[in-house]
Design a protein that fits this description.
alpha/beta, 7 strands, 32% strand, HetReg/Transcr_Mod, Heterokaryon incompatibility domain-containing protein, HET
Length: 131
């Protein structure tokens, strides 16, 4: 598989430490700007988990994560804008798991029950507000 900008975004996780990545929204200005950082479920973490409707994958928006431009689905983009008040740490499956790394996905997916259970708050986002 050809290298992607995403490859430099994702540092390896240590499954023995139950490591995950957490997203932090820094700015929703002209460009949604975020950071990803590694954390361990074995530590006392404070984060929110986001559950959302994936929606149309063709409706993409570009964001910056750790100064790397990536494209995300429109529904996730709008969800991040809607919930971005405060600089909270978020766990979002599409961004916090390297979707191109099958071995990583195979270790992260079984952790999802722990991730959602240990979250301080689980946010459900069904779509944009009706006008």
């Amino acid at each position: 598989m050809e290298p992607s900008p995403l490859d430099r975004l994702y540092t390896p996780l240590d499954p023995s430490r139950k490591e995950i990545r957490l997203l932090r929204i820094l700015s929703t200005g002209p460009c949604l700007t975020c950071t990803l950082q590694v954390a361990s479920l074995t530590q006392d973490l404070y984060y929110h988990a986001l559950s959302y409707v994936w929606g149309d994958p063709a409706a993409e928006h570009e964001i910056l994560v750790n100064e790397t431009a990536i494209k995300i689905a429109g529904n996730l983009y709008h969800a991040l804008h809607d919930i971005s008040s405060g600089q909270r740490y978020l766990w979002v499956d599409a961004l916090c798991i390297n979707q191109r790394d099958i071995p990583e996905k195979n270790t992260q997916i079984p952790l999802m029950a722990d991730i959602y259970r240990d979250a301080a708050l689980v946010l459900s986002w069904l779509g944009p507000r009706s006008e």
